[in-house]
């Protein structure tokens, strides 16, 4: 048995040394196949993507596929099945219309963080967490071939022996660790086989583009589109002046092309819009298509007054005013907005999120003095992620108490070994990863639907 999907991916990767010399792209079948594919891609130093497909099932026998749909209007039809099932054009069109709509919905949700990688002329490694009937894997291989793959390799931890034999006709190579005669269900071969949420898929796709050396990462940015959302110049990036009551506040605005959402930063005491830590996180968000606004909550004279630095009411008002200013910009009309607050700025963000004049869809706190938000904690409705350094013991305790006082969706993550400012190696990178996954997920306009419905039952330890 495999411990979980990550374990399966690591063990699967050990069988793929012969592919290291090829121009490989690893594609995972969402959602369960992506954690497996991530480990394979990481071991091979290869780019990671998802392969979004829908099989076209015969109306009276849905498990029997007469074709498959893929992104970029790829359609594969099995003329033999069409003839045997005596399918008419109207029958086929009805199935295709329904499945095309579902394909577009799923692709839209999964492509919010990054567009697809070019497959043409490359060796494409199609990975899933296991195969039962083989219908979806067959569709994925057919679509991969139709998108121009030079070689198609199907790799799975476990699958029935007879199904693998049938799939050999669709591939150039099949790699499988366990091929039992008696199969049962995919979940029976795992000790832990829980659902994989969209946020995890998004995070793994984002991380795959940044956790490899530059020499290996170039393939990940070779996109199907001639423009790359990571390397494209932003639609708008400039220093701005935000009017507030009796003062003007300096800011830095970055809006990527086709932004997924906007994130307004609220810095902590003694900091400003030039905070290197907030700028690091903002850059990570920009790379996945989120816009950012970093601005000074206080003027230089005000920042010298310690009473104002801890005036959460004033900081919250300034944050609300900046948010109103942002919503008046033409380039961000109808885009969801989130807050990222650090230290005292986190308290201001939570307090501002309760203001009825702004609509805030998510909040992230880094090392936040969230206790300073006081009664506002219970009134927050935006999903909130609290990130705290494991060595920042007092703030950890304050955040745990705050989480218990909040009634909205709340998650608390403690980064082991990190201090209050997350200066330790890898600590701030972890903050960026957590914030990125949370904000991409919560600022998405599409509500997640269980894509694994109908999968094999899980085996739990």
Structural descriptors:
alpha/beta, 8-stranded mixed β-sheet, 34% helix
Notes on the protein architecture:
With 461 residues, the chain is an alpha/beta fold. Helix 1 runs parallel beside helix 2, helix 9 crosses helix 15 and helix 12 packs across helix 13. The longest helix is centred in the first third of the chain and has 22 residues. 48% of the residues are buried.
First and last CA, distance: 11 Å
**Strand adjacency order, main sheet:** 9-10-12-11-13-14-15-16
Tell me roughly what share of residues is in helical segments.
Answer: 25-40%
Count the E strands.
16
- The amount of beta strand, in percent, is 15-25%
The number of helical elements comes to: 15
Most strands sheet: 8 strands, mixed
From the spread of the alpha carbons, the general shape counts as elongated
**Secondary structure category:** alpha/beta
Rounded radius of gyration (Å) = 24 Å
Uncertain ranges: 212-231, 446-461
Mean pLDDT: 85
